[in-house]
Amino acid sequence: MSLKAERTKRSSTAEPSERERIVRAVLDEIRPSLRRDRGDCELVEIDGNKIMVRLTGACMLCKLAGTTLAAIQACLIERLGEFVRLIPLPGAAKVGH
């Protein structure tokens, strides 16, 4: 089985990986600050060292969004102990999430 197929198989299980739990924990820690400013950040996908997120609410148009994303990325790198790239995806949040 290829590495990509193995990753896909692992990511399709109901039990989130330890990496995903760490990523979600970091986002949960920053979430109260984002919500105070009427915004939020949701995890969309983890693909290797790429972590895709979507900014919502006021965060979508905020001039400081880049700074916020850089701070989240730095925290993720520290917690995961490896380099990861936080990638903001455009668009509104999906209904039901």
Automatic annotation (TrEMBL):
The lineage of its organism: Bacteria, Pseudomonadati, Pseudomonadota, Alphaproteobacteria, Hyphomicrobiales. Residues 23-85 form the NIF system FeS cluster assembly NifU C-terminal domain. InterPro entries: FSCA_dom_sf, NIF_FeS_clus_asmbl_NifU_C. This is NifU family protein. It comes from the Bacteria. It comes from Bradyrhizobium barranii. Gene3D superfamilies: Fe-S cluster assembly (FSCA).
